[in-house]
Structure formats: C-alpha cells, structure tokens
Batch of 3 targets.
Target 1
Amino acid sequence: MIIIKNYQEFEAYLGNELGVSGWHTITQEQINQFAEATIDHQWIHTDPERAATESPFKATIAHGYLTVSLLPYFWHQIADVQNLKMQINYSIDNIRFGQAVLVNSRVRLKARLAAIINLRGITKATIGVEMEIEGEKKPAYVGEVVFLYHFEG
C-alpha cells in the first residue's frame, strides 16, 4: 500500500501503477444483497437454477454496477491518502465492461495515476482502473475514476 500525504507526493506517481488490491470473492449472497439494494432482480443475477440452464454463462453473474461499486473498497487497499480535510468522488469515466463476473469468481483492482492537477489547492486525481478476474485474460472492466482531495494546509 502506498501512503500519500500531499499533492507533491501524489504527483510523483504520475503515469505509474499505484498498486493492486487483494482478491475478493463475489458470492451469491453479495449479488442478492446488491439486487435488493438496487431493485435489480434480473434472473441472470439472482436465479442460480435458471441461470444454470438458460444463461450462456451457466451460472449467475454479478451486476456490472456491483463490480464498479467495489472501487472504493479496493482503492483503500491500494492507497492510504492521508492529511485530508475531505475527499469527493468526482466522476467515473469511460468504464467499459469486458467480461462478466461469474458467481464465486475472485476479482481485484489494478490502479495507475493517469492524471493529476492542482485546482487552486484541490487535488484532482484521475485513476486508471482495471478489475481483473482470477484465471481470466480479459478484465471485468477498465476505465477511470476521478477523486477530489482537499489536503490539510
């Protein structure tokens, strides 16, 4: 895990990989809880029996937005951004889903610092992200997430 305490420390990583998170297993329980929270009960996510016979994947799959919602969890395993007044989730850009995440798959996040600018004392960091699926060549998704960091002093 990297530790970042100010703009200058963050900027030193520009263009470089920031790190890789640990693995996380996507369970049917997690998929079902996400379906409840988002009111998205499409059978391809929530009906294992039907998915086994009718889905091209032969199993349930995680919601794409479930995998995206894990970004903060994984990001905090990669970087510990300290000395903050506040952090704002600013945007998620150009997310492209490459492959479905089957139930019981293990996923992790790779991150790199794609861009960083100082907006009158506010750090705008664009993080390139790629969610890997263990044992698969294609990622679940690639894209960018943008955070605004208000560092102390």
Target 2
Amino acid sequence: MYRNKLLIFLLILLIACFFIINVSATEDPIKIGSIFPLTGTCAKPGTGCGYALELAFDEINENGGVFGRPLKLIIEDDEGQPTTSVNAAEKLCVQDQVVVVIGPFNSSCCLAHKQVTEREKCPQVVPVAFASAITRPFNNPYMFRNILNAKTIGTLFAEFILRESSAKKLVILRENTDYGLDFEKFISERVEEETGVDIISIEVYNPGDTDFYTQLTKIKNLKPDVVVMVANIAESSQIMKQSVDLGLDIPFYATGSSATQQFIDLAGDAGNGLYSLSFTEVHPEDPPIKTEFIKKYAERFGVSSDMFSIATYDAAYIVAEGLKNLYKNNNEEWPENIAEFRAKLRDGIAEIDNLQLCQGKIVWNKYQESATDVYFIQWQDGKKVIIERLKAEDCVVPGEEKL
C-alpha cells in the first residue's frame, strides 16, 4: 500500500515537473537589439561591448530573467559604417521587432540610424557614442545615454590639458567624423577662453588611414606645446609610432580610446608618456558590481575589460531595470503589442533614479544623459597611472541637473 502511494506521488511530481518545464520553455523571450562594430577599424572595442552584453544577459537569465521572462540578445555588426548601421537598425526594429536597442559605438553611426529608432518609437540606450547631437537638443524622448556628451567631456578635457601642461600653443589632430568635429569644437571653445592660449592648427585625417607622416611633419615644424589627438585605437597607436619615428618631443593628449589596453598593445613603447581621457579605471572606491564585472569578464573572455565594455554592461542593466519598472507599472502584466511595449519600456527606463551600476549611479539629466566619473591617465612604462579623477556629481554642467 505504502509503495503504491509513493509511486503515485512520484508520478504526480514527475507530471508537475514536466508541466513546469514546458511552461518555462515556451515562455516567449523579450528580444533586445544591439548594434556594434564587430568588424572594421573599431572591431576590438566593439567586440568587447558584445562580450559585455553576452555576460550581462546570461547573468540576468540565470537569475530567472525579468519576472520569469528570459532576455534574448540580437546583435548586429554595423562595421563602424553609417549606412550599414541604418540597415542594422531597420532590421532590428522592423523585422526582429526588438523592444529596445543598445549601442552603437561610433557617433556617426548613431546619428545616421537614430531616425529609425525614433520613427519606430523604439527606446535606445547609447553607452559609448559621444556626439552632442545624439541627445541635444532634447527632441527624442526614446533616446538615452549613460555616458557624458562631447560638450561636457571636451570642456573637462581642455581644462585638464591647460592645468597639466600650461600650454600656450596647441594643435588638434582629429579624425574626419562627427566625433572628431565635436571634440574639436568644444575643446577649442574652452581653450580660446584663456588669454594668451591659441589653437594654432587643426589637422584632419580619415578613419582607416595608416600614414600620418604629412600631418605629423607639419606639426613638428609648427612647434606646438601640446598635440591634442581625437582618434580611435587603430589610428592613435599608429600616430604615436610615427611621431616617434619623426622625433616629435611634444606631449600628446588623447581622447578615450587611447586609455585602453588594446591601444598600448598596438602602440608599444611609443605610447608611453601619452595622457588620455578615461571613464573607468580601477579605484579603491569602486562599487562591488564593478569589481565583480572586471573579474568575471577577464575569466570568461580571457581579455581585460575597458571603459566601453563597462559602459555597455551598465546599459544592459539599465534595460533590465526599465523592464522591471514596466512590469510593475503595468499591473504586473506584459503589454500585448510591440508599440505599447516600447512606449511603456521607455517610461520604465526614464523612471530609473539612483540605480547603482559600474560607472556610478544612474541619474538622468534633462537630456536623458547620466553622468559618469572621469579619469585622466598617463601611460608610464606600459602601465596606466591615474593623474586626476573627477566624480560623476562634479561632471554635471550647471542647468543640466536631474529632471
């Protein structure tokens, strides 16, 4: 008798488990789109951003997804090319019916495809692209950015250069993109406010160029006190090597990509002495989520994370938090159609306030941008040395505080 009851109990338990497993297996995943350069000149940092998303969404899904629903990442390679990026956004928003887009890496790509995400009323979280026109003026409520904009960064960077170098004559060497043009504009504006300090030349090159001897020879003859370089990794590392070839004994100050391990791996000894802007470095005040991410990323992918992968990891958790807010605000139900889902997810992301992530706490300003810590580093003997750190709360321009 006892054995029969036990067999019946086990049979019922087996049927119940089978039912639960099948319900879980048939639960529709929430599709998350992403656009990054997995090939082309920005492939290394772009691939790192893809790794960060993979890690984040695996963590979220291993912990039950968002209120029981798994998240499915669909990542598109835009090759760092605006036209390709537009096609990627069209595919994700129209064909794949994703509820949100994370990315891209390049400002020119974002400016090209943001008309697609705006037209489709699809929320977008931008963790890397700097160009001010992505979020300014504020005319697209579906666009969010968890990184500082070019105006704020350019101004802070110019002030650091002036403090650190006491330079009177500066040259800007930049790529011929929206990213390069934005930084030229805002760095120049701040420098020109200083009496007796001048930008004596602006030298331009195209992304993908490998020969910079013409520009560097001209710079050498101009004899500036400082060269300000606005460049991505492939070009900045070559520029530093060729400047050594020409015997340029001039301090170089560079924007963010030059603060990555990939840069110094490519530049070698030629990178030593370079000052660079950075948005994340290992620091005693780092929150646990950041130290855990750095450790997990290195163990899983066998390479070090950088500021771009960390910002992208944060973007994934911004999306997850927005989904949680959506579900709670919608009477603990998921919207039935894509248009409603996107609109309510947009509201859920906008509702985020003081969420602690790797780069700091997410607090949206009136442009739906969140400030981050800013670091200024110098490469010394192949290692980064932090020269100065600005906390996120000190990187908010007056009048741009929290909404």
Target 3
Amino acid sequence: MDIERNLGFDPIDREIEKLGYDIESHVRGTGKLRFIEVKGRVSGAPFITVTRNEILYSLNKPDDFILAIVEFMDDDNHRVHYLRQPFHREPDFG
C-alpha cells in the first residue's frame, strides 16, 4: 500500500473480499484502476502459489493486473518485485 501511494496511486485493500487481487489502486485523474495481487515469500523460495481465481482475473485484465512479490530478506528488510502479465493461459484442473 505504501509503495502504491509513493508511486502516486490511491490504493484500497480488497484482500478479504477474495476478488482475485488484494489491492485496487486508482490512477489519479484518469478513473483507471490497477489490480494487484500480493504474494510474500522468503528470499530464495522456489515457488509462489497462486489461485485459479487470481490467474483468471489476471487474464481478464492483462494490462491492469500486477503480481507483486514481496521478497523477505535474511534481516528485517524486504524487496518488492512487480510482474506485469505474469500468466499467459488459463490453468487446467490438474
């Protein structure tokens, strides 16, 4: 949320609503929205788990969806990585 504010956007926490993203971020002066799914992982973790709903939402809004990976370092620091268009096809049920 702080990163989005520092970038000049107006974020709203939507995590508990289970919409397929965690943050709805308003682009000031345009009416446009950014949809951000946040995943936190320890640095070096080999996998990030996403839900089918999150993948489908990203495919429905490819230009507006961001996967934000919060990488927790060995100390109390973290880095945030923004990935645009992280998925390219719908998952199967397997």
